[in-house]
Write the structure tokens for this entry.
Amino acid sequence: MTFFQVSCLRLLLAAGALLGMTPAAHAQSGRAVMAWHVTIAAAWFDPSTAPAQITPFGMLFAIHDALVRPYPGHNLDGSLAESWSESPDGKMYEFKLRPGLKFHNGDPVTTEDVLFSFERYRGTASSSIKAHVDRVEIVDPLVVRFHLKEPWPDFMTFFGTTASAAGIVVPKGYITKVGDDGFRKHPIGAGPYRFVSHTPGIEVELEAFPGYWRRVPAVKTLVMKSVPEATTRAVMVKTGEADIAFALDGSVAEALQRGPGTKVVATKHASIFWIEFPKQWDPASPWHDIRLRRAVNFALQREAINQAACLGFCPPAGVIVPRVMEYALQAQPGAYDLKMAKQLIAEAGYPGGFDAGDFAAIPGFPTVAEAVVNDLRAAGINVRLRSMERASFLAAWQEKKLPGVIFMTAVGNSGNAASRVESFIQSKGTYANGGYPDIDALFQQQSSERDPLRRKETLFKIQQLTIDRVMFAPIMDLRALMGVGARIAKHTIGDVWMSAFPSYEDVELVK
């Protein structure tokens, strides 16, 4: 099929989809409260600096929209773009905007905004994306073309999913006028909800945008509350103070599950917990010894952590690429063997155990963090749990400034195995503290491979090397437990592919 034929086909499909997706004529009413498991950061209003995490997208896709993205019924399709196409040689992607799109302040959405947003993006995947893109061509106010230096099979994965925020479009005119700080204080987007106010550390209020292309949101007002304490979030759902509570711990989720009128829904997103060993490449560090890293893996009671924190919904992991991702190696989780863990620690020169210092754990999951700390201490690896705010943790991780010499993290943004290797495994990754030349070479090899079977083989080999070299200690895939209150008629959790958050414009309250 020629490039012209592909373009026509996509235009026809998009036209058919558009007829069924024009803003629905129904009344807006009500107010829904979402209780977040972390303190909401103002930085999450701005897609240009989005980290390799799913959490900021819970705010970004309420306020903003992208050229292409996942939404209910579509794993990846046109959003602000009514159609897109790839050239036969894989070196050019063309996007056509839907006519008549407006930002929340009334400014039209044009290809100038697309170019501006792309050039402004400096988030987690910026170096990789911009290394592959040769130039961006504005054909007219509605048509834009991305020209690649060479074929890159993952362009749409990185550009169009939550693997990055590079495809989100923001208003050039407004940001040029108010600057980055002004934009974060009062963001303007083209998403289903427009910004009303932000009380730092407490809540964000959003109002339905009647001009959203896909449909007019059914709920008029969304209030996003920062409620880091899990028990409080659950009580808020039980009493009706909150309508949805994000990421509940197992014990409080179980109680809510048994309550009248409330329920718990497990997400389907691509999230995973693991322990990082950032000093493993430093010969002077104890963690350079593979025996200690193996000891950590033997010390973890993964299934017990799953039961305590996730009611059994979170399968133990054997590699840091979530099993639901394309090209993920379906590796068996490591066995729990406390005796072997202690033996390896003794063989490494610490027969009585040792003090491993502070242990930073990604905020929002206290049961997982405490269980991991207890398992490490039982093996003789004495650590002290260090509490941090989510935004501070993510910034310190990227800047290589987290306290302690090992730490626990979790990542839930989508993409595929290659996008995870890009950020965390290859030596130039945004969050990598080191790496191996052979893994780097394999990563580069697969990045231009257009044969899916060959790519799969190469990505499997990379993941197996991380296991063989004990680069990480995988814990478990996360299926976040979300509490849903009695006022919610339609929660939409799980409707968006690999997302932990509701499709906000589709949430409905009981009438």
